[in-house]
Amino acid sequence: MRQAQIYRKGILSGILTEDGGEYRFCYDSSYLKCDNAKPISLTLPLQEEAFVSPILFPFFDGLIPEGWLLDVALRNTNLKTYDRMSLLLLCCKNCIGAISVVAINNGGNE
Q: What angle do CA 107, 31, 61 make, to 5 degrees?
């Protein structure tokens, strides 16, 4: 299982989990209670229930770099282009825009 904290403008908005070929995104309950809470994407509206998908949500996949920047990441790691969660965790901590993806260390159970 791999997990990431998802921040919107520096505020923890939710947790993204990959486990057994399934992806889940769940908004943080504290974030949902904020008066100024906004969805991280129009495709992931604010709700208490987790979003579940057999593939990485297109919004998160769209944060992964493309072209020469992706080539740099692949050249300097042993990752493959089809390992989207690893690329997201590696490349998107300080990506351009309001969203940041910070890996959660699960004690080596990855």
A: 60
